[in-house]
Fold this protein.
Amino acid sequence: MPKQQEPHSIQAWSLINRKYLGKGIRVKRFRKPSRCQIRNRVLLAVLMANDIKLSQLAEDISVSSRSVSAWVYEGRIPGKKNLDKVCQYLGYPHHILFNHTVTSTSPIICQPSSSRFMRRTLTRSPVSNKILTGLCMVHDLSVSDVSEWMDIHPGTFRKWLHQGTLPSASFQDRAEQFFRIPKFILFADCILQDEES
């Protein structure tokens, strides 16, 4: 009776394959960005608040996924044709979505401790301020924590998100200092809505 070979384990086959096929080092296809690697936080915020994937945006406006990734993670500005397509698709002017002040720097926001974005914020009632809501998602911030850190009532912050209420100048300044994004961008949804009315 012929001697049966012992079946190789997965680990053994892996070692054999590494010997013949290369070093066996696997490089991830996609990097997991840290907060400081997102150059265009506003564009990513709008996409997240509208539940649009980068690949979906690329497909819908007929550009490569690599181009969209470069806009978000590297802060690149698209050419005029693609710039117009993105702005029309998302409904914001280019000075909001591709603002040089935002894309040239990617600061860590004034977040004193860890927080966690609560999806309840989106499901409780419709969101009017997509940019501000999206930024909370980008940085994984809860409404209650942001309210505490900015020294405002949580109900006030929720009004900014859900009702699109434009806060007083002093509250706008606080939000600008916290998120490190100009207030005319943070509250663009409110301003643009007022201009249309």
